[in-house]
Amino acid sequence: MLKYILKRILSLIPVLFVVSCVIFLVVYMIPGGPATALLGMEATPDQIDALNAELGFDRPFLVQYVDWFTNVLRGDWGESYFLHQTVTSAIAEYFVPTLSLAVFAQIIALILSIPLGILAAYKRGTALDLTCVTASLLGSALPGFLLSMFLMLFFGVYLHWFPVAGYAALSEGLGEHLRYLFLPALSLGIVQAAYLTRMTRSSLLETLYKNYIQTARAKGLKEKKVVMKYALKNGAPVILTAVGQSFGSLITGTIVTETLFNIPGLGMLTLTSINRRDVFVIQGVVIFVTLLYVIVNLIVDILYGFTDPRLRPGRK
Amino acid sequence: MMEEKKNETLLEIKELKVSFPVHKKWLPAVDGVSLEIHPGEITGIVGESGSGKSVMSQSILRLRDHDTAVRYEGEILFEGENLLQKPLFRMRDIRGNQISVIFQDPLNSLSPVHTVGNQISEVLILHKQLSKEEAGKRSIQMLKMTGIPDPEACMKKYPFELSGGMQQRVMIAMALACEPKLLIADEPTTALDVTIQEQILHLIRDLNERLGMSVLFITHDMGVVSRICHSVKVMYLGQVVEEAQTQELFENPCHPYTQGLLACIPHLRVERGKELPVIQGSVPSLSNIPEGCHFCTRCRLADDTCRNCPPPLVEISPGHKVKCWKYADGAKEREVTAS
């Protein structure tokens, strides 16, 4: 098991290498550099060139890349030009709201989707099933920002139950923290739930036609037990993959939702850094997000082993 | 004690018709089958794929009810009770307890993500209200009975860690855990290689003799039938076309279809290079059933009568019935079916 995890972590290196090349190239190619952004619109070309030389942006591409990448490997991810802090500390700071929001949204999504998906599969073909399918289709088709705005308007502006936008750090108390996060988490959660409900339902329906389900029924088990014990555990890898994907997309920052609700998270950091050409932050965030994604996938892969013995690493 | 029970009927199927909806029409997969199973008897059902033998066997436990719309006509009497009249949740007391099934493909018929022990104990906990420990002990006994070496270790294993033969033994142990009165074996040896097949057949026959349990043995293999069944029914397109005691059927096959099936068994003494006979054509689809005798499209003897009028199932000697115009004519004119 340990060997397996180690192997997976080692396989990260080529992934990170490729991602770092691509992101460095993209950032290098976009017009306008940090010097332009730092000096403002009125700066003369001479001033810009001078600042670029000072910051080292006049060096050849490869030299810049190697310089940056070796620093990244050493743990020095560079410094932001605008935030007056290192990239790593900026990411650490902006990641907290994103992580909170992602976990909250994922919990909402799971609470909604897993029972609904199971119910739809259990009552397959009935009006209840149809309602679930239609609702989840509607949820997937609805643009996230529209849903966010509707929730803001309804729960924030009319009912005053939750703040319309903004963010309260955990240091201000858990209640306050969650109160501010509730609407964005609900908005993200509903969209993810729509996807997860469909995945849960279809994965269960697929397993319900397997031979071992017939065996389970032939034993005299209740249909509820057949679904909950046999269909659910056998369908679990598919559901788990979907949950992993959904959590991966939440944890890596949701630009639209964070911007709408004015939450200082990774998504917002990415957006402002791109606007300001804060190159080291952009590159740092991309590397960090890649790492997160791979780690989430690794955890999903390890969890597979708990649901299906055939996928247990190190076994046969 | 066995002797007096012999006369009773354990399972009696009367004029069973099972239909499924296809393009808004109800098509019968089983069309008027009657059979009786007595305690301790092994009854074989033979037929090609699509003959309705599996549907018939699944209908006894009403396993199809969960997946599709299905319409039953006729009666399935188990110890005098009509199973078709029972609400589905009442069937749960019978399934796995009084009547058990073993399926064709043991690997796919066992849940891949639950241990063998878990899957066997479950039936005992459900029907015999045993505690987990008691059920575990009994499961080990069952595994031992089916000839699995080191049953304790097997309990903790997952199905994919066992060989095909061992998997089928696990299925049998699971099916017999509650000592059912009837075992439905739905092609239990088809997915296994020949030596394992022989072992499993031996096991079923042995358990049948030791426990006095009846077996409904479904297969497409005439060779298997000859080794295990006391009596045989040959099915074609949802109907029984011939039935007899096994020896009688092999010595005196009357229906051209039965003769065809028997001719398909390869013999060692057949000349080398000589082609094995086959039944021409394939089973017509349910939406395309011929009007007269169902077999007329593939029968070498078919004439106009065969093509236009369905033949009755006629007893030509005690216990030997055949559904064929060509043999009905000369036989004692005693109609069995009231059609």
From TrEMBL, chain A:
Pfam families in UniProt: BPD_transp_1, BPD_transp_1_N
Keywords: Cell membrane, Membrane, Transmembrane, Transmembrane helix, Transport
Annotated ranges, domain ABC transmembrane type-1: 95-304
The organism's place on the tree of life at top rank: Bacteria
Subcellular location: Cell membrane
Transmembrane domains' residue ranges: 12-31, 103-122, 134-158, 178-196, 238-261, 281-306
InterPro entries hit by this protein: BPD_transp_1_N (IPR045621), MetI-like (IPR000515), MetI-like_sf (IPR035906)
Membrane topology: Multi-pass membrane protein
Stated family: Belongs to the binding-protein-dependent transport system permease family.
Protein name: ABC transporter permease
UniProtKB/TrEMBL annotation, chain B:
InterPro entries cross-referenced by the UniProt entry: AAA+_ATPase, ABC_Ni/Peptide_Import, ABC_transporter-like_ATP-bd, ABC_transporter-like_CS, Oligopep_ABC_C, P-loop_NTPase
ABC transporter domain location: 13-262
Entry keyword annotation includes RNA-binding: no
Gene Ontology cellular-component annotations: plasma membrane
Family annotation (Pfam families): ABC_tran, oligo_HPY
Annotated CDD domains: ABC_NikE_OppD_transporters (cd03257)
Keywords attached to this entry: ATP-binding, Cell membrane, Membrane, Nucleotide-binding, Transport
Gene Ontology biological process terms from the UniProt entry: peptide transport
Membrane topology term: Peripheral membrane protein
Any one GO MF annotation of this record: ATP binding
Ranges that cross the membrane: none
Subcellular location: Cell membrane
UniProt family annotation: Belongs to the ABC transporter superfamily.
The protein, known as: Peptide ABC transporter ATP-binding protein
